[in-house]
């Protein structure tokens, strides 16, 4: 037996329903901090160095996805 339930709600209502925390204030503070750093960094290279850990994590995630896709499409021998 399958039951399909469709609910029409805002993201805020969904978070409340699932008991997730409201991170709006934290998100705003992080955005303000990023804007401050962008204003202070007149050199784009310096700005990228500040964000390097975030970029490295994305590269690792992208490699994980590519490796998974390659493994799924490579015929198995034997």
């Amino acid at each position: 037996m399958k039951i399909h339930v469709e609910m029409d709600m805002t993201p805020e209502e969904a978070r409340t329903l699932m008991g997730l925390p409201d991170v709006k204030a934290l998100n705003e503070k992080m955005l303000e901090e990023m804007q401050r750093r962008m204003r202070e960094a007149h050199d784009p290279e310096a700005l990228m160095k500040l964000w390097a850990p975030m970029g490295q994590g994305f590269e690792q995630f992208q490699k994980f996805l590519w490796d998974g896709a390659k493994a799924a499409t490579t015929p198995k021998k034997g």
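The chain has four helices and no strands. The mean pLDDT is 80.
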